[in-house]
Amino acid sequence: MPRDSTATRARILGAAYALFYRKGFQRASLDEIAAKAGVTKRTLYYHVRSKDALAGAMLEHQHGFVLAEMTRWMDRPAATRDARALVARLFESVVHWVKAEAAARRHWTGSGFTRIAMELADLPGHPARLATRRHKSALEAELARRLAECGARDARDAAAQVQMLLEGAMALTLIHGDVRYARLASAAARRLVMRGRS
Amino acid sequence: MPRDSTATRARILGAAYALFYRKGFQRASLDEIAAKAGVTKRTLYYHVRSKDALAGAMLEHQHGFVLAEMTRWMDRPAATRDARALVARLFESVVHWVKAEAAARRHWTGSGFTRIAMELADLPGHPARLATRRHKSALEAELARRLAECGARDARDAAAQVQMLLEGAMALTLIHGDVRYARLASAAARRLVMRGRS
DNA sequence: GCGGGTATATACACTACCGAGTATACAATC
DNA sequence: GATTGTATACTCGGTAGTGTATATACCCGC
């Protein structure tokens, strides 16, 4: 194992994430990715079998980071007791992210997972699609677990509904470039997890 | 004006919609689109300036159909009086669409507008992005108008929230291939437009 | 009405380029 | 000295866009 193979692999997956995220799957070229990773294309192909496999591997790699980040936002004391505080934190993280991008003079471009899934809508068996499914399922399960801990009614259904509001907020924020949607989604989500009639 | 120019243009926009919808913006080729429209590529370029412009024009063309279809679903007597019935109809249309695709042994692939916007996330000025913005704004405004007519509280905010649930339902239905999300989103939307505390 | 001119519409054949993937050779570690 | 990793240089197919030629309908002067 000459040179540091795992470090090279990590650099490749990182560069792949950056470029796939910025330009989408099809428009990100392997030449660019290899260049950004500081590696030739031949080396890249030593580490991954194809562009399709690279996209899948890079999303699997990314999953851990996203889950950790989400966990970090939800691990505030208040959010472990009160379902409304929990979902409020979740949407705050989105607002924070949108603003951070704006501060860097970039546009918010939403979830890399969802965007790739939509770009490859006609290829349900694609590695990136499978990684996306696993990712979204894991997030939803984690949210359901926490909602149940807070004593929310119908935690599983509520988790799916909150996740849809998250996805919707990301879509419309991307389309209109307006953070307002994230705030409205937050209000809706808090209303949903409220105890109350039906 | 030899031959029927407007009919040719309509055929081109129709073929463009079909292929852009199926394979996305980048992976749909102009050769394919021209072939499907029964026209050579040179003729296609007589009618549109570029692939980018074609995507924009085709979405503008599509906007009317989608709005009309949505209107048709919401024009049930009950839905013009009761906000809950109104949004229920809206989500029924999604469920109906998903099932129709499944019956034709195809996968549901969501909104063509949203998918293109996500594919071109880094190009906010792209013609297709502008068309998408206009489209989503028009849908939201129409929904707000109808909700207000039903006497829903905060109709404008509620319209945005219901639209986010719609977008979220489409995203997760695409990702998981499961209609269940549309039903859960419907329940959430009905709860949101309900009169009640905060 | 009618021949010819003009703007419009379509066809064929082509270019230039980019991007995924590969044949082969070389280098570094154990 | 064998295995693993990296580099150079290539192939080959696909795709956006174009140069040039031709066909169709309308219009206008007469």
Question: What are its keywords?
Answer:
elongated, DNA-binding, homodimer, 198 residues, mainly alpha
Count of strand segments of chain A: 0
Mean pLDDT of chain A: 94
Main interface: chain pair and counts? A-B, 49 and 49 residues
Write down the overall geometry of chain A: elongated
**Helix and strand string of chain A, N-terminal first?**
HHHHHHHHH
Given helix and strand content, the structural type of chain A is mainly alpha
Strand content of chain A: under 5%
Unreliable residue runs of chain A? none
Any overview of this molecule?
Chain A is mainly α and 198 residues long. The first copy, chain A, contains 9 helices and no strands. Chain A has helices spanning 5-27, 30-37, 41-47, 51-74, 83-103, 112-119, 127-149, 155-176, 180-193. Chains A and B meet through helix 1, helix 6, helix 7, helix 8 and helix 9 of A and helix 1, helix 6, helix 7, helix 8 and helix 9 of B. The structure holds a DNA duplex (30 and 30 nucleotides).
